[in-house]
Amino acid sequence: MCGVTGAVASCGSAAVGCAGGSCVNYFTSAKFLLYLGHALSTWGDRMWHFAVSVFLVELYGNSLLLTAVYGLVVAGSVLLLGAIIGDWVDKNSRLKVAQTSLVVQNASVILCGIILMIVFLFKTQLLTLYSGWLLTMCYILVITIANIANLASTATTITIQRDWIVVVAGEDRSKLADMNATIRRIDQLTNILAPMAVGQIMTFGSPVIGCGFISGWNLLSMCLEYLLLWKVYQKTPALALKATSKIEESELKQLNVQKDSELKPTEGVQLIGEKDVTVFEPHQEKEISCSARIAEPFITFRDGWVAYYNQPVFLAGLGLAFLYMTVLGFDCITTGYAYTQGLSGSVLSLLMGASAITGIMGTVAFTWLRRKCGLVRTGFISGIAQFTCLVLCVISVFMPGSPLDLTVSPFADIRTRLLEGQSLPTALPADMSEISFTTGMHNWLNRSSSVNSDLEMSSDSVPLISVSLLFAGVIAARVGLWSFDLTVTQLLQENVIESERGIINGVQNSMNYLLDLLHFIMVILAPNPEAFGLLVLISVSFVAMGHIMYFRFAQKTLGNQVFACCGLKSKAVSNDSPPSNTSTV
């Protein structure tokens, strides 16, 4: 009996020891260190992106002009420089790229924070120096440095989330899918928690304290992230090896783990072989003329977009970009519309929390669907789910409480105020023919405040059926949206050759920013709440076009197999065979 008891005790101790050892191994693994570094980086990014907009509004007399200029500069910079940044990522070692972009990004934020602190403390004195031109230079300097920080953040995203994570996952596609999903969950959580944290500091403290806190956080975070990157690099020897030529890429392996021998081979095999991919050869060491150096960025820009078009996953990437042309998200536009419909800030914060939860559910759905149906079909199913939920948004446009009225002029509020002799906000240009982004946003804010005042003074409230359906559709659609986003992200990771990951993902970022910029222009053209229903219909149309592009990609990739899912297969499926030029992969 004692022997049995001792054996059980020893087995229990061994089990505890194994469990403890596995926990230690996990928390010291390259995968966990990558998660930790990403969490630190994302937390700092979200705090800064939230705070810099608030700071710029406060600095310019509660006007949105500086915020609008900052947004346009950021979007334009990534649009023009995305391919060049990606090319720089491809041509340099992984550690150098990651460390350089990390230092530049955080140093830029720290410098911006210091300048903003000086401006907040000595704004009155700066206004009197050189007729206020010194203060204007400070504004320009802040926007320029903040834009540099955003470009460095783009480089960090490309190298870590599109390259390092693929190498750390090895040849295990399931592990890659799990890592992508975890990264997105971290993004979802920090999107909500980081702005809340810095918002509390700015509310109960002051803008100066907020600037100091963000600068201090980025300094500490930079040191920790630098150390974590080095640890991940040491634990993953493959990161030191980087293919830079076509010869090295000729034996590129697909990372798919084949669940079903009859269903899965063509899903990953046809992707690489579908089109010839342009590979950038390394530059030879030779004398380069001055004109060639000037022309090099333009050539890189052109070659990057050509290479992006030639990718086998071009339609999938373009479909994802089209999803950025929408007002159906929790940005300043949709929240401004919600205020006009009588929703309070507390209700909006709850809705944002619900959207984060459904976003996390989307990451869970992605991993489950991918195991059951394969990667390409997961995107197809996710697209159908997202579009189905957005039908609620379309219905909301025609429900009671919807302010849809296309007979109202987009700039009726401005004309009315001019006729009444009221002064325009400082952000508005004197010439009404130069209506800009700021004009549209001011219309939203002015209409929001006036409607909320009317609601407080009147016993009759706006029916909430329309706005309830709108946000129900937006929140529910996040499940399909994030599952679809993860699908396209992994398709790019798996099917873009290693020597082109940077430039292709740089162009993908440019495409995303281009469509995002177009959606702001759309709001400029129709900024009043009466036209928001039209914006909803246009947004859903672009989402539909994006998913049609993806369906075309899935059809070209899988053929008749696109509708076979979850282990179900037809005769047409079993008769399909992979192309002869890729059957050896």
Blueprint (SSEs and pairs):
Blueprint: H1 2-27, H2 30-59, H3 65-91, H4 94-121, H5 123-128, H6 133-169, H7 173-204, H8 207-235, H9 246-249, H10 265-273, H11 290-309, H12 314-322, H13 332-340, H14 345-373, H15 375-397, H16 412-419, H17 437-457, H18 465-495, H19 501-525, H20 532-558, H21 571-575
Helix pairs in contact: 2-3, 2-6, 2-7, 2-8, 3-6, 3-11, 3-19, 4-6, 4-8, 6-7, 6-19, 7-8, 7-14, 7-18, 11-19, 12-19, 12-20, 13-17, 14-15, 14-18, 15-18, 15-20, 17-19
DSSP helix fraction:
over 70%
What fraction strand?
under 5%
Note the gap between the termini: 59 Å
Number of helices: 21
Structure notes:
This protein has helices at residues 2-27, 30-59, 65-91, 94-121, 123-128, 133-169, 173-204, 207-235, 246-249, 265-273, 290-309, 314-322, 332-340, 345-373, 375-397, 412-419, 437-457, 465-495, 501-525, 532-558, 571-575. The longest helix has 37 residues, at 133-169. 44% of the residues are buried. It is 74% helix and 0% strand. With 585 residues, it is mainly α. It is built from 21 helices and no strands. Mean pLDDT is 79; it is low at 13-18, 250-285, 417-460 and 566-585.
